[in-house]
Amino acid sequence: MSMTYSGGCACGAVRYETASAPIFQNHCQCRDCQHASGTGHASYLTFPDRSFVTISGKVITWTTIADSGHEKTHAFCPVCGSPVYLTLAVMPDVLAVHAASLDDPGRFQPEAVTYAGRGLPWDTLDPSLQTFETVPPR
Ligand SMILES: [Zn+2]
Ligand SMILES: [Zn+2]
What we know:
Elements: E1 5-8, E2 15-18, E3 24-28, H1 31-37, E4 42-47, E5 53-56, E6 60-65, E7 71-76, E8 83-88, E9 91-98, E10 112-114, E11 130-131
Parallel strand pairs: 3-10, 10-11
Antiparallel strand pairs: 1-2, 2-5, 3-4, 4-9, 6-7, 7-8, 8-9
């Protein structure tokens, strides 16, 4: 199997590819991810260095103050509206892609749940995952 992770939005106008390996794979139940995903959580693979992620196609970004108090910028496809990736002001090098944007979403291997304290009773996740009330301590 290729080590390359590739994916994009639902309509194919935005594409990305990286040969780097994710450093973190999580479900996030923060209020912002609930709003942006339209359901109880969003799921991400976080890559350590955005300069190693090739992105093609035009995205539109919007920035919000995350539950952490730091700026978080969402990138989505202006054609189909799919959320594709996000970046964080506090960790400017990293780039997190939405798990279901992968060409092979089966490669997502969640290891943790962030902002579990915001989880909704109807959004039950795998109880064997490590959970954090907010984010992992750094
Ligand atoms: Zn699209
Ligand atoms: Zn979140």
